[in-house]
Specification:
Blueprint lengths: L2 H43 L10 H13 L5 H13 L11
Length: 97
């Protein structure tokens, strides 16, 4: 294999790796925006938490989830959002995909 071809393939592989990283960053940002929107909706609409602070345990779960976004599939993220909803302690709070 010629040196020019090797260099071209190397640059191509680096480019693909960069695209994957950008897509991963964009996905993570997207899920963080979704989490922020969910928390804002809870603070706005929940019958208890529109006038009280969210529990510290809920906030801790949110921070743990944010750290795990890159490792979780989209399906797992939906499940984890349902888990967050369940932490609010009533049967009327849920996530619609």
């Amino acid at each position: 294999m010629s040196m020019k071809l090797r260099a071209t393939l190397f640059i191509f592989v680096l480019h693909l790796a960069g695209l994957a990283a950008c897509q991963s960053d964009e996905r993570t940002r997207g899920w963080n925006v979704d989490i922020d929107a969910y928390i804002a909706a809870v603070k706005r609409d929940h019958y208890v938490y529109r006038s009280e602070a969210l529990p510290a345990s809920f906030q801790a779960l949110v921070e743990q989830l944010r750290k795990k976004i890159p490792a979780y599939s989209d399906q797992r993220m939906l499940l984890e959002l349902e888990h967050l909803a369940a932490q609010l302690g009533d049967g009327h709070t849920y996530i619609l995909p």
